Amino acid sequence: MSDKPVETPAAAAKPAETVEAPAVVEATPAAEAPATTEETKPTETAAAPAAEEKPAETTEAAAATEEDKPAVPEKPTVTPIQALYAAQQEHGHPEIWGVTLADPAVHVPSQIVFQKYLNANDGDLAKAKDQLLKTLAWRKTTKPLELLEQAYNRDKFAGLGYVTAYHKDATGAYNTEEPETKEVFTWNVYGNTKSIDKTFGDLQEFLHWRVALMELALQDLGLASATKQITADYDPYKIFQVHDYKSISFLRQSPSVKAASTETIKVFAQNYPELLKEKFFVNVPAIMGFVYAFMKLFVAAKTIKKFHPMSNGGGLAAEFGSSAIPDLGQRLPKEYGGKAADLKSLGKETKLEAAAVEEVPKEAAVEETAKPTEEAAPAAKTEEAAAAAAADPVAAAAPVEAAAAEPVAEPAETKETKA
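Below the sequence we write its predicted structure tokens.
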């Protein structure tokens, strides 16, 4: 019995082995595991974390399962431009201003068209969409590109409207990457009207001619081949407009002229937004000052800044010093202060019907040949009449009344759309 106490220290050494037991237990088969005692409990406790790792595996499995499930797509952000394109696609009419509309993400001309409708409505998508759809419906019905190919009555419309275009390098090709270097003008010269009743009497015919002139200008603007996008603040794709009121009376407008003017305002305001760069009213009478002041009460300040009434058309050339075309003013028609030929020689008109040729009756020709002496007296009378006209040009011109079509109120449009 005296030997037993000697073995006690060896037994006391077991806990040290037990501390390392977790590693041993993992390598020991379950059948050889030591009996459960108070000394082995720490081993069981140490093994517990291994069991607790299962939730992590479960989480990974759950994550894998979630990945296998179809992901719930986030609602895509549709840009206003894409929304307008979708509206156009739903409507179906494929064209505006000579541009065959396509995905604006990859088609610059379409981006320009849709952005102009947004700009015209200060970025309001609902209003822009409404205006766009109305334009599409109007173009589908009116067919402006077909109107451009139509020939118009020469007696009614010859000399009333022209289009001129200029780009920086007059002798070279226009660079589409520099749209600022092209300028397009439309010229309305209603003082050349031969007959108020003929020109404005048929409202539909007048509107068709006026739309054709605008489409002619848009062809020169070249939106269909544009390569540079626009923004709310940058848009070089616009047109100068000049309205020449020489020899026009503002005090005696006929009902047909007023009707033509009113309808033109409506059509252009709705269907040609954001296409005006600046508008010049030249050779205007003194009353224009009153009309211009009156317009300020009803037209947006942003738009009214683009209107420039001028009493002397010869000063127009001096108004383009800020153009990207340095010599633009000098290249304008000579009657507007430029150094080029006159407007009739420079400008393009809409297609016009061939001039009618009047045949002189043979009897009249023989009679004139047989009586040369009788012409002396009429010739003298003609000279007297010419002298009288020179002395009193106002009285001589009295029978000719050239009331204005498209009065200055025409620009009072939805935004900056103009006839």
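The longest strand covers residues 182-189.
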